[in-house]
Design a protein that fits this description.
The chain is mainly alpha-helical. It contains three helices and two strands.
């Protein structure tokens, strides 16, 4: 799968999840959805690279000398940013569900 395909797949998935959300909220999170898709696609590439190189370089003659690979550092930063975005988006979804439940309680 290509980086572009991963981006498109994540963008479509998140956009579909937010179809039932109020349009003003959907517009508000549009950028976050795009950022999440971007981070997902970037990490796809980094993960493929890391599966070949590993996350830590180990000195060939002295295994106690180790150095983290720069791609691994970036991967972890991206994962943390992605997690924050997804948590934020999930909070908006849950707020939307609670709002819908409150609307239904008016008919009880």
């Amino acid at each position: 799968m290509s980086k572009k395909a991963v981006y498109q797949q994540e963008l479509e998935k998140l956009t579909e999840i937010f179809t039932s959300v109020d349009e003003s909220k959907r517009k508000l999170v549009e950028g976050l959805i795009e950022d999440a898709a971007f981070l997902k696609s970037e990490n796809f590439v980094l993960r493929n690279t890391l599966s070949e190189t590993g996350m830590v370089k180990i000195h060939p003659s002295n295994p106690s000398m180790q150095k983290p690979v720069e791609a691994a550092k970036q991967y972890l930063k991206n994962v943390n940013s992605y997690a924050v975005i997804i948590k934020t988006l999930n909070g908006i979804l849950n707020k939307n569900i609670l709002d819908d439940d409150e609307d239904l309680s008016d008919y009880e």
